[in-house]
Design brief:
The structure is a homodimer.
Chain A (H helix, E strand, L loop, with lengths): L4 H11 L6 H12 L3 H17 L1 E2 L6 E2 L13 E8 L2 H10 L4 E5 L17 H7 L7 E4 L5 H14 L5 E4 L15 H9 L5
Parallel strand pairs in A: 3-4, 3-5, 5-6
Antiparallel strand pairs in A: 1-2
């Protein structure tokens, strides 16, 4: 099939998508060839619409089609607590708990010197500017428990502490329902360190 | 993110692609949101172009942008031997061997009563009509070695034999470079049945 230019181009486009190798890209391309005109229009319209309509919330940098996202727009949310996450998908995870009533701030990434991503490449500035009016009591750092997520949380907490804001971090420990036998040493020792009175 | 209509629609579109679950579809959607205008145009153009330009070869039903595919158009190919395959990707596999000099016929599927796919839903008619002018000496059945591939090969060979055409089937056996210890019983007994004099 290497001679069909338009097929090759489509396969290359699909290969650019995250975790898509040659075989998957080929399958996706053959899937497109099997669609009828309406289905192709539906796919390309969805791509164009999402790309055109979705941008970041003017307050928390979450994704939205409006000026503010539905969480920042909700008067019942407690805007004195800000949970700082790496990306919009993390918000979905927190919302599923139905526990958290504060608001969020999306960094859109973490600092990663190895990949040339510094503090100015993620939405730290926007977070700082939200804290200037003294209505925020607590900032919960909820970046991923990875080396880069940790470093980013530490960096931000050092910026915020001089401003007199309480900065907290998610608890580390063994996941609920997991098997201790398979817990890694670091998680287990963090769970020991953070042990609580029964 | 469940509230962002255009994002949900895009995720649903991606979920329709083969072997794409919710997590992958979400990753693809976020990938699209991260693209700039030119990159989005490049993706949608590739989809539209492939969909508009590619159709099946008027002779062998392989995919092509022209009236005939490059194999049917090649005068050096031996058009007296037709290798019957399930889909265009199988042709790529045969071409990689650089051994086969005949032509192909693409069925675009196999008969599958369980899924309601009968002989009229795949390109059997087109194969029969190619055999009417007495120039074809041999038809090699190269459908997949699955139950459905086998049944389709048997069905077609029963149609062709009364026409006095030699119908052959790919050899079964242990794959080159594999470990006999892990060969399944069926493959191994087929390899025994097909043993050849050294």
């Amino acid at each position: 099939m290497a001679d069909i230019v338009s097929l090759q181009r489509l396969i290359e486009e699909f290969r650019k998508m995250p975790s898509v190798g040659l075989k998957s890209a080929e399958r996706f391309a053959y899937y497109v060839l099997g669609l009828d005109d309406n289905q192709v229009k539906s796919l390309t319209d969805a791509i164009n619409n999402a790309h055109e309509k979705i941008h970041t919330c003017s307050v928390c940098c979450n994704l939205t089609e409006d000026e503010k996202c539905n969480i920042c727009n909700n008067p019942k949310r407690d805007s004195s607590v800000i949970c700082v996450v790496e990306n919009p998908r993390d918000i979905t995870a927190f919302e599923r708990t139905h526990e958290y009533r504060g608001v969020y701030h999306v960094l859109h990434g973490v600092m990663s010197p190895m990949n040339g991503i510094g503090p100015n490449d993620i939405r730290i500035k926007e977070l700082i500017s939200r804290l200037s009016d003294d209505t925020v009591n607590e900032v919960i750092m909820a970046t991923n428990p990875t080396a880069e997520g940790e470093a980013t949380a530490m960096y931000i907490s050092k910026l915020l502490k001089p401003m007199g804001i309480k900065v907290t971090r998610l608890a580390y420990g063994v996941p609920v329902g997991s098997d201790l036998e398979y817990a890694d040493e670091v998680t287990l020792s963090r769970a020991l360190d953070g042990r609580q009175l029964l």
